[in-house]
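re: the backbone from monday

yeah here it is again, tokenized this time
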């Protein structure tokens, strides 16, 4: 850019023509902003009658002519002031001034969605498709693929309270679990939960409490327990910046079902911790322990992974991958596994 002393010696029309001539070689939107900015400087400087006439860059023979062209009447000064104000207005600069705030808002929205995903009772409609690939099951080194379809939907009860529903419907394929060459495919048993949760955190803590139900939806006797179950559930968490930590717990007792099948009395404990950065990228660590009070045995996978919020065909989504290692296991539990989650997000 030329020095200011050279810039003020040009007329507004000359500046506009010069930048229009190079717009084909540079970013048009940037050229437009530069042209309008320099035009604003010209209009502002012209408010002072003596500046042009006394310009050090104008030859002496031209100073009188230039000074004569610049009116010193109050009416014409006000016209130039109006021009300067118009050049400063957002509508004059158009979309160039709004592009950066819009992009910043989009980044903030994605970060907020990532933080809400880490909150089990957030006011967010989501449909996760959680794929679990488990290996080393039992003595026969069986394998299992489980797709958990887990829709989450919030409902407003009143001005201060939400009802959050969470449902887990498993679709299972497993092989070599009940004998060499054996295979089973179908639905497993469904677990549904309903939480009553305040809309605003209290003392920085978000919490929810309610009931959990076990529904015998398994299409194969080897994929479910044929028992109805019911029990309490609760969750508490805290979010500080991009950090989320807390725990979810439930206990289910069997209340009806096939009398020939074992009773159900199990506790599920799920502490979790995650960190989300400004690019909506999340690192997470969680533990999912299930303690069976009937057999006095525990299954406890430790799960570490990452996820990213992005838009797919205009729809906010989240992709995540985790590794699982079973620190404690029953004879029929896996030894290790991989989890891949794809989540559709519908912000309210």
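seq for it, each position gets an aa:
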């Amino acid at each position: 850019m030329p020095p200011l002393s050279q810039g003020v010696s040009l007329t507004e029309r000359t500046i506009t023509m010069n930048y229009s001539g190079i717009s084909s070689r540079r970013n048009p939107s940037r050229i437009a902003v530069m042209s309008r900015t320099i035009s604003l400087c010209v209009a502002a400087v012209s408010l002072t009658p003596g500046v042009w006439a006394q310009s050090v860059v104008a030859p002496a023979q031209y100073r009188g002519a230039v000074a004569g062209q610049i009116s010193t009447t109050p009416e014409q000064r006000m016209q130039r002031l109006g021009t300067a104000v118009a050049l400063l207005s957002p509508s004059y600069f158009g979309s160039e001034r709004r592009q950066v705030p819009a992009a910043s808002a989009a980044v903030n929205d994605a970060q907020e969605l990532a933080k809400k995903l880490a909150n089990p009772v957030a006011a967010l409609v989501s449909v996760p498709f959680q794929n679990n690939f488990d290996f080393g099951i039992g003595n026969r080194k069986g394998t299992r693929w489980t797709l958990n379809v887990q829709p989450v939907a919030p409902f407003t009860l009143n001005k201060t309270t939400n009802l959050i529903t969470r449902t887990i419907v498993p679709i299972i394929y497993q092989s070599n679990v009940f004998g060499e060459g054996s295979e089973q495919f179908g639905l497993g048993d469904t677990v549904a939960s309903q939480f009553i949760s305040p809309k605003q955190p209290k003392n920085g803590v978000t919490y929810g409490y309610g009931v959990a139900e076990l529904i015998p939806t398994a299409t194969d006797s080897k994929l479910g327990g044929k028992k109805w179950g019911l029990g309490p559930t609760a969750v508490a968490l805290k979010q500080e910046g991009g950090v989320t930590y807390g725990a979810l717990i439930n206990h289910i007792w069997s209340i009806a079902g096939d009398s020939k099948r074992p009773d159900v009395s199990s506790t599920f404990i799920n502490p979790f911790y995650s960190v989300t950065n400004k690019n909506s990228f999340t690192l997470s660590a969680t533990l999912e322990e299930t303690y069976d009070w009937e057999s006095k045995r525990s299954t406890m996978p430790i799960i570490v992974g990452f996820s990213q919020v992005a838009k797919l065909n205009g729809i906010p989504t989240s992709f995540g991958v985790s590794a699982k290692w079973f620190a404690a296991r029953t004879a029929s539990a896996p030894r290790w596994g991989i989890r891949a989650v794809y989540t559709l997000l519908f912000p309210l």
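The domain at 107-347 is CATH 2.40.128.130 (Lipocalin). Residues 1-31, 40-71, 84-104 have pLDDT under 50 and may be disordered.
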